[in-house]
Every structure is written in C-alpha cells, then in structure tokens.
C-alpha cells in the first residue's frame, strides 16, 4: 500500500507549512511569509549555484505562498529550470508551478515550450504525461500554436502508452476548446473514433470526451462513432456486475463511461441503421429494467452510480423523442422517484420530468403526477426542490388543468420564498393569459397576484393586463368593476392603484351607472390613495383625473380644484407640476369636442409577443440574447405608458389626429388675426406628441409643453412691436454651418417641431407656427451639463440678399444658462419675398471658460409660407396648362430613400404645406397638390404632382410655379423627403 | 448554480469537495466522481486527513491530474490510478 509521510522528502517545506499553521494572527502569517520570501530571494540571487533539490524546495514554498493568496513576482526562472531536470520530483514541481502561475511573459513562454517539446519527444511516458498535463491545464493560445499539430500524432501513434493516450486525448480536447482553428483536422480523426474500441477502458473514457466535443462541431465527420458507441455501451450494460473489474464501481459497471457514451449519442438523432437502433433500444430498456431490480448494495454510492446512468438514459430517450413506449416508461420511473426518500432523486426527477412534459408522447403521462407535484410544492423542505416543482407545474400546464395549477401556484405564492416569488408571479401571469378561456378569470388572477405579492409584480405584468383589457372590450366592464372593488380594501398595493387608476380612467364610465360606483365615488376612492403613492403613480393618477373630466363632466369642478391646489401646481417634482399645469389649462381652454378627441379611449395595442414571456426567458436563460429582450421590454414599456407605438410615420410627420381636428386642412381665413393661437398651440402640442396621454418619461416634445405661455390675446404683430435690437455680427465672425446643418434642415421641411440639434453640451428644440407670410418660432436651448453657460448669445444672421427677403426678429435671452436649465427664445419671422437660402442661427457661449460657437441653418424654408389651396380637377388642369413655360416647370426623377407608403407620403405632402387634391390625377396612385406661397411682396401659385413607381422604387416629382427659381427650389426641397 | 455553471459538492468531515460543471451535466455522475476521488486519496494517504492534503498539496495535484484533466474525467479505475501513483512515488 502506498503511504506518504508528511512533507515527504522536503523537510524545509514541512517546517515552513507548520510555522504558517502555527501563526496566531494574520499579521504574524504575513511576517513569516515576508521573512521566507526574503530568504528565498537571497538564495536565488546568491552567487552559489543552487542544487536541484533546493530549487525544488524553494519553488514549492513559493507555490504554497501563492496558494495562500499572496502575489509572487519571482521564481519563474527557477521553475523553468526545474523543467529540464532529469529527476521526476523536480520536474513535477516545475510543471506544477508553471501550470498554477501561468505567466504570459513571452521570453519565458519560449523556454517553457522548449522544455515541453523536449519532454514530448522524450519517449518517457512519465515526462510526456507531465508535459501533456501542463498543456492541458494551461491551454493558452501560444501553447496551441506550438503543439496542436504534434498531439494528434501522439494520440494515435501505435506505440504510445495507454496513460499517454489518455492524457493526449484530453490535452487535445482542451486545445480544441480554447482555439479550434489551431487544431488541424486530418487523417487522425478517423483513427480517434476507433479509440472507442480500445481495450483500455481509461483510454475509451478519455477519448469519448474528445469525440463528443468534436462531434458537436463536425457531426458529419464523426458519424461512424454512433455504431461504435452503441456497441461499447451495449457490452457495458449487459456485462455482469463484476466483469469489468477495475472499472466496476460499487457493483455498477463503468458508470462514468456509460454516462459519457449516452451523452455522446445525444449529439445525434436516433441511429438510421435498424440493427444499431435495435441494439441501442435494447440497451435503454435494459437500463430501465435494472432500475426495477433490487439494489445490489445498500450503499448510496451504488444507487447514485446506477441512477446517474438511468437519468442519462432518460435524457437520451427525451432527446430522441420518438419512442412513445420508452418515454412513458421513463415517465413512470421518474414518477416513482418523485416520492423517493432521497431529496436529490426527487429534485432530479422533477427536473427531468420538466423536459418530458414538453414531449407530445409523454405530456399526458406527466400530467398524471399532478397531485404529487402539487404536494411537493407545498411540503418540500428544500427551496430548490420547490422551485423545480413550480417549474414542472408550469411545464405540464395546459387548458385542462390551468385553473387548478394557477390556483395552487397562487396559494403557494402566499408563503413562497422571497427568492422565487417574482418568477412564480411571472409564471402565473403567463399561464393565466395563455390558457384564459374567459378573460374575467384572467383579470381576477392578475389582481390576485397584485394583492398577494404586489411587490413582486413587475411592470411587465401590470402593463400586460392593461394591454389585454384595452384590446378586449368584452372584459372592460368587468375589469372596471373588479378594480373598483379591489381598491376599496383599506390597504392596497401601489400596483393595484396603478392598474385601478388606468382602468377607471379608460373604462370607469362602464360602471358609472351604479350609484355605488358613481363618478364622484370613483374619483374620491382613487384620490384617497393619491397621497400615499409614489411620484410615478401620482403622475398616472393625474392623467386618470383629466380623463375623468372628459368621461364625467360633473367631476370637472372637483378635479380642477385638485389640480389647482398648490401641492400640485407648485409641486417640487417637475413631472407632477407639468401635468397639473397642462391638464388644468387643457380642461379650462379646450372645448368639449377637443377634450373628447384628445382624451379619447386608448386605441388597441398592436399584438406582439408577451413582454412577460420575454422577461421569464431572460430570468431563465442568463446570457442568451438578453440584449434583444431588453430592447423589447423598453419598447413595450414606452408603449403602455405612452399609448401608441411610435412609428416612423408618427414621428416624422404630423400625426393623423391633427387632421381629425381639422386644423391643418382648414387654417383660419386670411383676415383672421392670431388671437386664437394660444388654443391652437395647445392642441398642436398634443397632436405632435405621438400619444394623447403624455408618457412618464419626458420626451423632447413634452419638454416644450412646460414652456407654454399662458393664453394671451396677443397677435404675432403685437410681439413684433417690441423687438430686441438685432445685433448682427459681422460676416467675419460667422463660422460656416456645421457639416450636418443641411441634413438637420431637411428634417424640418415637412414638420415644424422637434429637436434641431443636440450634442453633449446643448440641445436645441424648435417649435414653430406659420400663417400667411408670418411665422413665430420658439427655440429652446437646453443646457445638458451641470455647469453654467456664460455669455450665452444666440443670434440670427441673414447671409447675402436674405436681408431683403426675410425679416427675422429675435427677442433677447438671458446671457447665462444654468446647468440643466432651458431658455426659450422667440423669433418673429416675416417673409418679404421669395427666398432660397435659410437664415443662419449662430449660437455662441462660454462653457467652463472655453468659447463655444455653433452655426446652424434655421429651419425656415420657403414652403413654410405655403397656403394650401383646394380646387377642382378642371381648375387644376387649366392652371397647369397656364404654367407651361419651360422655366416654370421643375422636374426630378429620383430613387426612394424611404419605404413607399402612401399614407406617409400624404402626411409629408401635407406637412410640406400644399393641399392634396383627390380625384384629379386619373391614376389614383399619384399625388397632386396645390398651394400659394405668401410673401409680403407677392404671391406665388404652385402646383405639384408626385408619381410613385413602386416597382422601380422611384418617384417623379413635377412642380410648376409662376416663378422659375421657386419651382426649382421647391422641387429640390421636396425631393429630399421621400 | 454559479454563473452559467452548477457546482456539485460533497462534504467529508470539515472539508467540502466542489466540482463546477455545465448545467446540463449529469449531477449524480459527478457527485460519485468526487467520492471516487476521495477514496483514492484515502488509499494513497492511508486514512487521509486534512493535514495530509495541506502538507502534500503538490501531490494532491498529481492525483487530480491522474483522475481529471482538461475539465473531464480521465481515469475512473481506482486500481489503475493508485498503481500509477505508486510508480511515480518510487521515482526520485
């Protein structure tokens, strides 16, 4: 019998280790170590050459110190020297040091590789194994480059010893896993497969691991391994418990090899060859049969080894998913384990059954165990086992047992461990949605979830219930009634308030007929929760209130009172304050019709994969495509808050609701002064935001809302009366416009509001209105930094002739902009005559002492002064013919840069400013428009025609105006937009 | 569970033997692999105790390398491993 005495052979090491163990404190240990390090350092540096034994001893001490957790920055050279020793014990310590303290020092790597190369070529099996183990343990790319080509040779060489083959196989596996590109495939691969037939079971054990890994990458090249693996497995499984001698472990023949072979077979579909398949099925049946035999030993090792094979067999059966008989037998076997006294076995049985539940052949068989699994969920002592039980219930759930499973999971939730509550909540939410036959059950279930485990109900879950209620009108009344009842509980979770607030705001009218839930009762119930809620919830409730004003005019006075209260109007939270101010103003200035439109019921949500499902996947599969899921979650959370999914068309063009209000189609008559503008402005603001209900996160559009002036009967001309002196800087001061200025300008040709410019310091937003030949533009300069801008001076300059064509008057702005603050600048614009180039906006300020300067093109283009003109087909053609001089027409044929969507195109043309004339062009695909450009000096009539060719993805645009340069200019501007 | 892996462990007196494997790996097989390893240590060190492992840490590495390599099981036969260890022990 081998016996090893303490510190055998290295007394100094044993003494050192004893010393360390005897240290009473951390400090003492560090002191002892430092002493030893100094000693070793002096020995290594000393003049006297050290003998091999001393080197080994000191290197070993260094290794020990490193393993205790201290840094070692010397001794590598001595370790490398040991590699070339001809004594095994010295070589072993050298290799161990190198393997443990891998160092990418290139000089050393060369020396190490050299030593390894010598050992590999030594034909001494002990040295070869040491070298192979070192490569396998380090597995660096450098080693791969040096040895990947040699090792296959050693592996399949006829004269290699068995132990060398074992090490070579696994060494190659390591290199292949680390850098597959370095391992050359070739003639050796065929011979590797035949190692499965090797006499030495240890070689087979090592080779199976290598082959399994190679199969996964190149299944076709290694197909021959299937039949070899089956026959090997068959020989093991059918052998008597003592046949394999050395490889029998507690009466189980070669358990690890069996498991590895079964895993190898899981790389492939069932064998095609009938004989092979028959043999394999026989093997699998034998394993299942053996599970029923009485154990040959009472030792846990025996049953563990036996069951390891059994579980792997079941995995293979599940993987094939084609043998109903075997699947059902596997399921029954697992069913027995569900009640086994070994916790490990119950755990594994639940886990395997989870996969069986997804097979059509065994799903029903799994379902028969439902009571046992529910019982496990209730009674298991170990949380991880309960978790598996919950997983299995989730997997076995279908329409037939959904109600039972959901109610059991809900009951479990009341006492569930905190760690798994959120997951249970997600699962219940998904099952309730997936198997809901009537949606009132679904609504009840989700509200129960919130009641029982409100803290664990994530946003996704309550967003989802709102989406479903919004999209299904058969459940809206029931939902309103149920949330109303739920809110009556004296203490209800904030998530309940959110869901309740949203649903009553949308569908409260459906239960308003009942005096017990009349509008004032609904409102006071919600408002009783208001003060206990977080900002986000209060913001949501404010939106509910404004919706109430629309739904129930009788609550208007009360609600306005609430909004007007100082605690809202002057709330320290900007979001709440903003909502209170806007909603109050909206409710006072807008007519009932406008209110009804703005505060209309939310449109149905687009169908998409449940965001809850995505979240569960993310929880379950760490790492896998989580970035994608995050994106989806964000999209959907915007969605539920903001209402409608912001699509390209709503973002880049006036929203359709503007048309609904009839503002764009029919502007006020030319003579009307502008006093109505305040009201219009407000409505405009709403129609430009993609949702009727502002989203919780402030968007750029929303930021404008806060800048709204209170309604004032002031015409643009009135404002012009007190203009700030325009201090035009001399031309020498004006830098050229920034490179992207043209692109930014193009964004605004068909729209009036948006973000004009943004960099790390500054955001410039624009909101503008044009009427006749006049315009008013609000520029919002936001300081994005935390430092003050000084000498802030934005000015408008008119290059060239523009002075005579366009008058722009700017109001003075504060010269200092605090960090995070926004200042507004009002520009009054008058178009004197037609112009081709936009004015420039020059923004100069000092930030942190450094002067900043920025030149942009102001989004004022000639088409802003368009007045749409409706006319009949006959008139159109008559005028078209009148403008037939060659110079009056401008035409462009160009490729579509955006998808050719008729609705988007329409919206863009309207945004451009012309009227759209239907039934003029004989081809309904074409668009025809007309308008008049209003300037102070003259009016320019303008006709346009746009002919899309969807097949070629091209457009032809023709413009005819009474003024030649205008035709060309408009044509250029508009052509950029499609 | 540990990151994307799972840890299988077994306790012997005051010592935990841990093995970190892929989530899909066979739990019981690795649980028994630990035991197999401990039985080899026990034979090799004659009733192994914690101190044997501390004082002979560099030999423990040799035992590990014989039985596990490159993250895989290399040799499972206790007889074969011990024979090899004995042979190495006899070398200088």
Automatic annotation (TrEMBL), chain B:
It holds the Pfam family Clat_adaptor_s. SUPFAM superfamilies: SNARE-like (SSF64356). It is a peripheral membrane protein. It is found in: Endomembrane system. Keywords: Membrane, Protein transport, Transport. It comes from the Eukaryota. One of its GO terms (cellular component) is membrane coat. GO terms for biological process: intracellular protein transport; vesicle-mediated transport. Residues 2-91 form the AP complex mu/sigma subunit domain. Belongs to the adaptor complexes small subunit family. PANTHER family: ADAPTOR COMPLEXES SMALL SUBUNIT FAMILY. This is Adaptor related protein complex 2 subunit sigma 1. It comes from Cavia porcellus.
């Amino acid at each position: 019998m081998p016996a090893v005495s303490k510190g055998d052979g290295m007394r100094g090491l044993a003494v050192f280790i004893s010393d360390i163990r005897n240290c009473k404190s951390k400090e003492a240990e560090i002191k002892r170590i430092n002493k030893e390090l100094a000693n070793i350092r002096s020995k290594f540096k000393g003049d006297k050459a050290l003998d091999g034994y001393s080197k080994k001893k000191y290197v070993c001490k260094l290794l020990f110190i490193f393993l205790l957790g201290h840094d070692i920055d010397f001794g590598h050279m001595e370790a490398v020297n040991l590699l070339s020793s001809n004594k095994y014990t010295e070589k072993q310590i050298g290799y161990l040091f190198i393997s443990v303290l891998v160092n990418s020092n290139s000089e050393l790597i060369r020396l190490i590789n050299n030593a390894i190369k010598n050992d590999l070529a030594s034909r001494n099996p002990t040295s070869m194994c040491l070298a192979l183990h070192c490569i396998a343990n380090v597995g660096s790319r450098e080693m791969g480059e040096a040895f990947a080509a040699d090792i296959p040779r050693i592996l399949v060489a006829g004269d290699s010893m068995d132990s060398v083959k074992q090490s070579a196989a696994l060494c190659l596996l390591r290199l292949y896993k680390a850098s597959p590109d370095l391992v050359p495939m070739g003639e050796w691969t065929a011979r590797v497969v035949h190692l499965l037939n090797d006499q030495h079971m240890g070689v087979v054990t090592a080779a199976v691991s290598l082959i399994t890994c190679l199969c996964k990458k190149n299944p076709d090249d290694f197909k021959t391994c299937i039949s070899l693996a089956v026959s090997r497995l068959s020989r093991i499984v059918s052998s008597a418990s003592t046949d394999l001698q050395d490889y029998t472990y507690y009466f189980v023949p070669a358990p690890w090899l069996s498991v590895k072979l079964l895993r190898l077979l899981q790389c492939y579909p069932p064998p095609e060859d009938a004989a092979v398949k028959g043999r394999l099925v026989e093997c699998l049946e034998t394993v299942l049969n053996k599970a029923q035999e009485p154990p040959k030993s009472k030792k846990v090792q025996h049953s563990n080894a036996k069951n390891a094979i059994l579980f792997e067999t079941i995995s293979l059966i599940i993987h094939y998913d084609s043998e109903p008989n075997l699947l059902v037998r596997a399921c029954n076997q697992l069913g027995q384990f569900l009640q086994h006294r070994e916790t490990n076995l119950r755990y594994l049985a639940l886990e395997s059954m989870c996969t069986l539940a997804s097979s059509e052949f065994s799903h029903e068989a799994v379902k028969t165990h439902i009571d046992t699994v529910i019982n496990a969920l209730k009674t298991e002592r170990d949380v991880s086992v309960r978790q598996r039980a919950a997983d299995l219930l989730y997997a076995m759930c279908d329409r037939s047992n959904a109600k039972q499973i959901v109610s059991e999971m809900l009951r479990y939730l009341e006492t569930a461990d905190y760690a798994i509550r959120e997951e249970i909540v997600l699962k219940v939410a998904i099952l309730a949605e997936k198997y809901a036959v009537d949606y009132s059950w679904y609504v009840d279930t989700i509200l129960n979830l919130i009641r029982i485990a409100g803290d664990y109900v994530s946003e996704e879950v309550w967003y989802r219930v709102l989406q479903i209620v919004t999209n299904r009108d058969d459940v809206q009344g029931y939902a309103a009634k149920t949330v109303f009842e739920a809110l009556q509980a004296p203490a209800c979770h904030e998530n309940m308030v959110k869901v309740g607030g949203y649903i009553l705001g949308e569908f409260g009218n459906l239960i308003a007929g009942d005096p017990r839930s009349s509008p004032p009762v609904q409102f006071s119930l919600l408002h009783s929760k208001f003060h206990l809620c977080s900002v986000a919830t209060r913001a949501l409730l404010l939106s509910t209130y404004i919706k109430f004003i629309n739904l129930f005019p009788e609550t208007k006075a009360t609600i306005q009172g609430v909004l007007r209260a100082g605690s809202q109007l002057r709330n320290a939270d900007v979001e709440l304050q903003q909502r209170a101010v806007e909603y109050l103003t909206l409710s006072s200035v807008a007519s009932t019709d406008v209110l009804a439109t703005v505060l209309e019921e939310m449109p149905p949500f687009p169908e998409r994969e449940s965001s809850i499902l995505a979240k569960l996947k993310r929880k379950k599969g760490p790492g896998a495509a989580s970035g994608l899921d995050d994106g989806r979650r964000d999209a959907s959370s915007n969605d539920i808050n903001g209402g409608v999914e912001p699509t390209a068309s709503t973002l880049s063009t006036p929203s359709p609701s503007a048309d609904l209000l009839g503002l764009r189609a029919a502007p006020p008559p030319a003579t009307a002064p502008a006093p109505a503008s305040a009201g219009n402005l407000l409505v405009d603001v709403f129609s430009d935001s993609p949702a009727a209900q502002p989203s919780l996160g402030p968007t750029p559009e929303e930021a404008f809302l806060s800048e709204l002036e209170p309604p004032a009967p002031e015409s643009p001309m009135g404002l012009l009366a007190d203009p700030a002196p325009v201090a035009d800087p001399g031309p020498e001061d004006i830098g050229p416009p920034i490179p992207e200025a043209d692109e930014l300008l193009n964004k605004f040709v068909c729209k009036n509001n948006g973000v004009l410019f943004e960099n790390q310091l500054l955001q410039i937003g624009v909101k503008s209105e044009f009427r006749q030949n006049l315009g008013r533009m609000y520029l919002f300069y936001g300081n994005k930094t935390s430092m003050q801008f000084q000498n802030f001076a934005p000015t408008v300059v008119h290059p060239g002739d523009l002075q005579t064509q366009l008058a722009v008057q700017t109001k003075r702005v504060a010269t200092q902009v605090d960090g995070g603050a926004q200042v507004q600048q009002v520009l009054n614009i008058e178009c004197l005559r037609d112009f081709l180039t936009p004015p420039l906006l020059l923004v100069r300020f000092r930030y942190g002492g450094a002067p900043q300067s920025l030149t942009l093109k102001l989004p004022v283009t000639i088409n802003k002064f368009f007045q749409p003109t409706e006319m009949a087909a006959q008139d159109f053609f008559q005028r078209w013919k009148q403008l037939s001089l060659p110079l009056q027409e401008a035409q462009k044929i160009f490729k579509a840069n955006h998808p050719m969507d008729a609705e988007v195109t329409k919206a863009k043309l309207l945004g451009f400013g012309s009227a759209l004339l239907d039934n003029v062009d004989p081809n309904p695909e074409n668009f025809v428009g007309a308008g008049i450009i209003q300037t102070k000096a003259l009016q320019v009539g303008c006709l346009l025609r746009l002919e899309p060719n969807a097949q070629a993805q091209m457009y032809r645009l023709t413009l005819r105006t009474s003024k030649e340069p205008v035709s060309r200019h408009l044509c250029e501007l508009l052509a950029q937009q499609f | 569970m540990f990151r994307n892996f799972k840890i299988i462990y077994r306790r012997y007196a005051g010592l935990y033997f841990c093995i970190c494997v892929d989530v899909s790996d066979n739990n019981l097989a690795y649980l028994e692999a630990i035991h197999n390893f401990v039985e080899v240590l026990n034979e090799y060190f004659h009733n192994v105790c914690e101190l044997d492992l501390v004082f002979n840490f560099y030999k423990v590495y040799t035992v590990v390398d014989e039985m596990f390599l490159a993250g895989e099981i290399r040799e499972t036969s206790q007889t074969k491993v011990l024979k090899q260890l004995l042979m190495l022990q006899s070398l200088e």
